[in-house]
Amino acid sequence: MSANEAFDLLIVGGGINGVGIARDAAGRGLRVLLVEKAGLAHYTSSSTTKLVHGGLRYLEYFKFRLVRESLNERERLLSIAPHLVTRLRFVLPYKSWLRPAWAVRLGLFLYDRLGSRSTLEPSAAVRFAASEYGLPLRRNIRRGFAYSDCAVDDSRLVVLTAKDAAERGAVVRVGHRLVRAARERGLWRADIDCETTQQAYTVSARAIVNAAGPWISSVLSKCIGTISRQSVRLVKGSHIVVRRLYEGDHAYALQHTDRRLVFVIPYRDEFTLIGTTDVPWQDEPGSAAITPAETEYLCKTVNRYFERQIGPSDVVWSYAGIRALWDDEASNASAVTRDYVLDVDAAEDQAPLLSVFGGKITTYRRLAELALDKLESHLGPLAPAWTLAAPLPGGDVPGGDMKAFAAEVGRRWPFIDGPQARRLAHAYGTRVSRLLDGVASREAMGEDFGGGLTRIEVDYLVREEWARSADDLYWRHSKTGLQASPADRQRLVAYLQANGQERPARTG
Questions:
Q1: Which mean pLDDT values do the consecutive 10-residue runs of the chain (508 residues) have?
Q2: What is residue 498's three-state secondary structure?
Q3: Three-state DSSP class for residue 6
Q4: Phi, psi for residue 412 in degrees, rounded to 5
């Protein structure tokens, strides 16, 4: 990138909110630069519970607006990204000493009706003796409820949103860090450091969007030299993955004794995902890991409900992320709101600074719309909002029928086995043809680096989707890391290094 380029928006942060704003703004014709110091979805946005949901337990805190907005966005994401967002039936075993049955029924009644025009199956009471839902549960748990929400490939949602932004004109730069920014003659002058060249360059922008997540306060104080009226509260959420606990495509929402919900979700065909925790985070933001106490918390919750008992030795993978929640001064981490605040700092003659506090992956599209609404009075009239029904890349699947689409992928490329055909169909949607165009045999896909991640896919992800490291490829762009062996990883690292790609991720 040349020095002194001019942009309408400089966006700091390549998580879901940053890329969502970049996509919306680029689609309205704004000149956008997004900088991310590590990789897309490198931190919080790849460490979620992989759900697009209304937030059933938020009803207990009377967050009706947030739940309504989230349920509406759930429908929209199902429509624009059917390859990434899938319907999921949740089973909620009932224990009377946690919540009275009437309260659960009322909550589910509201949950079914707060969202407009839901296409998901409504909630229902369940007797486990007569239902497959009861098979993995302990025999003394006789009844419960079932309701609907959605699962999502969180990091691919980020990547494909960024891809759409770039195809609409946004400049997306990973491994680029904002060093400092200052207002000058009605614009922002920003110095940015490029990790690859070890050089800094300067750009101008009419507005800055601070979507740095856990680093939002650091960007304000260290890079811009200001403070906000709002603040964030850092909370660590951890998850464990075990071998598949039960048959079936449904999930469970288990009530812990602290009244939180722990989700048990089918994951990547062979596994079960369990989470999350809510632990206050006092250290500097960055990479995080699960603690033995959190692992025990999640295992004990499962063991309270399931016949099959699990322990730390059953965990095949774990991950943790630091969530930057808007600080509403709640008394404990679990009660902190998942709502968001968009704070604009600008006098009439100043270039605006918009900071994104809080939020969750489900509401990112709507958050982006509102962010541009906030900036419009400073930037001048913008083109109308457009993301409501525009598919993400690969999301134009006929009728949104992913089962039929995955089957078609298997027929078109018969040398790809069923599980891999399904993975590729869901990861790329209709753009799978770009990946496999001209490929006539399994051998032509090249070396397998584990879990079906082949050379042709690695090259595509590096070329088209900003992947820079083995970790990017295994855990964020493809989710094949669970099936890859240490030897597979060594071969992938060697391949990337031979092609000048493998770079260590920044952590600060």
A1: 84 98 98 97 96 92 92 97 98 88 93 88 96 97 97 98 98 97 96 92 98 96 90 94 97 91 96 95 93 98 97 98 82 67 87 95 97 95 97 98 98 96 98 96 97 97 97 96 96 94 50
A2: helix
A3: strand
A4: -70, -35
Distance in angstroms (rounded) separating the CA atoms of residues 137 and 134: 5
Spatial contact of 186 and 346, defined as CB atoms under 8 Å apart = no
Strands (E), 176-304: 176-184, 187-194, 199-210, 232-243, 251-255, 261-267, 271-275, 279-280
DSSP percent split of the chain into helix, strand, coil, nearest 5? 35, 25, 35
Q: Residue 257: its pLDDT value, please?
A: 85
State the amino acid at position 490 in one-letter form.
Answer: Q
pLDDT at 341: 93
For 42, which DSSP code? -
| Three-class secondary structure of residue 408 per DSSP | helix
Query: Per the structure block, which two tokens stand in for 498?
Result: 């031979």
Give the pLDDT of residue 289. 96
Query: What does the alpha-carbon distance between residue 414 and residue 343 come to, in Å, rounded to a whole number?
Result: 52
Which residues is 260 bridged to in the sheet? none
Q: Which helix H or strand E contains 34, and what residues bound it?
A: strand 32-36
Note every long-range contact of 476-479, with CB atoms under 8 Å and residues 24 or more positions apart, other chains counting.
Answer: 476/39, 476/40, 476/41, 476/42, 476/46, 476/155, 476/156, 476/159, 477/155, 477/156, 477/159, 478/423, 478/427, 478/451, 478/453, 479/153, 479/155, 479/268, 479/423
Size (the chain), residues: 508
153 dihedral zone (left: phi>0; alpha: psi -120 to 50; beta): beta
What is residue 480's DSSP assignment?
-
Output the pLDDT for position 505.
Answer: 42
User: What is the widest separation between alpha-carbon atoms in the chain?
Assistant: 72
CA–CA gap between residue 139 and residue 330 (Å, rounded): 37
